[in-house]
Amino acid sequence: MDASQSQELDFEIRASAAPVSAERRAQMLVAPGFGSVFTDHMATVRWTEGAGWHDARIEPYGPITLDPAAAVFHYGQEIFEGLKAYVQADGSIAAFRPQANAARFNRSAARMAMPQLPERLFVRAIELLVAQDRDWVPTADGHSLYLRPFMIATQTGLGVNNPSSSYRFSVIASPVAGYFGGAVRPVTVWLSEDYSRAAPGGTGEAKCGGNYAAAFAGQRQALEHGCEQVVWLDAAQRQWVEEMGGMNLFFVYGAGPSARIVTPVPTGSLLHGMTRDSLLKLGPDLGIPASEERISVAEWQRACAAGDMTEAFACGTAAVITPVGAVRSTGAEWTIGDGGTGPVTTRLREELVGIQYGSRPDRYGWMHPIR
Ligand SMILES: Cc1ncc(COP(=O)(O)O)c(C=O)c1O
Predict the structure, then answer these.
(1) 19 and 120 share a domain?
(2) In the listed set 152, 176, 200, which residue is the last one of a domain according to the structure?
(3) 171 and 256 share a domain?
(4) Disulfide engineering: 116 pairs with which of 3, 17, 298, 347, CB 3.0-4.6 Å?
């Protein structure tokens, strides 16, 4: 099925008979953490060969029952997305760039031989779920409603030669505080020389669960070396910087009016982040030129030692922008700038967060109102 096809499926709304009380919800929203509190409902749409997408509904949040031989458990045919809805300065609710996530979802689906989901259906599921659970969208400073669309292969059977003939698409929603505890604190990163996240021709550009399963060992190694996050290098030469954990990277060269930002060129093995894409547009509009370039580990170290590189930061939906203060690897260790949060990082963060919460003008049409 073509993703651009404007298939209109009516969602059946099955409201929960036992929603969380307003009082309990208020308690849960005080310190929700990240991804551990969920709203009353979820969206679900099913796909089967021949019938296509059907059975669209908003239903009570709850366990999914699957046959133990369902394909997702054995061959990992699973993709997901991550985006947020925010209470705006005027009290309304808006989601950040859901159409862009819908498009990336379909690129992931194509790579994993899964069916295309009409973008309108993806966005509609989000609109209806957020509208249904609007009381769960947190209003506290820096909090938001994290949305997790995902698709799993549900066909029963252990045959491995063909992709599944049935799938389930769902969206769940989780009120969240800031990712790294909310504070904007520089992280120290570990350069992974033992493990690769993705290889040429692999699935690095897809947002599939397997990429994350393969990344845990590297992240654990980073923690063992006293670092908060792992930075992935290219799999072939182990010298080109790709991305950091679940975030893309930016490097700041120069300072003041001559500052410019650089992010690694997408090579097929790193994720095209929405935040990355947004900053590539926002930077130049703020007078900070932005470019995609190949950055080697040697260049990263050289530019910091020479004072050419003044800041670095990681960006992604969950934490928005996180400064990178220092780099560590088996044979080297260096600080970026003064190791703190630099002015370019702060400026870009404030601007983007301002757009997301509706306190700065959205000149790009990024905010999608939820009615
Ligand atoms: C591996 C990886 N890279 C980068 C990103 C940043 O992408 P986005 O800005 O769309 O959240 C994410 C998060 O989705 C990710 O998981």
Answers:
(1) yes
(2) 176
(3) no
(4) 3
pTM higher than the cut 0.85:
yes
Residue nearest ligand 1's atom 5 by CA:
247
Structure tokens at 191: 């350069």
Domain boundary, last residue among 129, 147, 176: 176
Q: What is the DSSP letter of 166?
A: E
Q: What ligand 1 atom has the least distance to the C-alpha of 245?
A: 1
Tell whether ligand 1 has an atom less than 6 A from the beta carbon of residue 325.
no
243 lines ligand 1 (CB under 6 A): yes
Indicate which atom in ligand 1 lies nearest the CA of residue 81. 14
**Residue 258, SS3 per DSSP:** helix
Are residues 148 and 248 located together in one domain of the fold?
Answer: no
Q: Is 361 inside a domain boundary?
A: no
What's the average model confidence in pLDDT over 273-289? 98
Domain carrying residue 103: 12-176
| Ligand 1 pocket residue status of 235, Cβ below 6 Å | no
CATH code for the domain of 160 = 3.30.470.10
Please identify, by atom number, the ligand 1 atom nearest to the C-alpha of residue 82.
14
pLDDT in tens, 224-260: 999 999 999 999 999 999 999 999 999 999 999 999 9
Residue 317 near ligand 1, beta carbon < 6 Å: yes
Q: How far is the CA of 139 from the centre of ligand 1 (A)?
A: 24
Is the CB of 245 inside a 6 Å radius of any atom of ligand 1? no
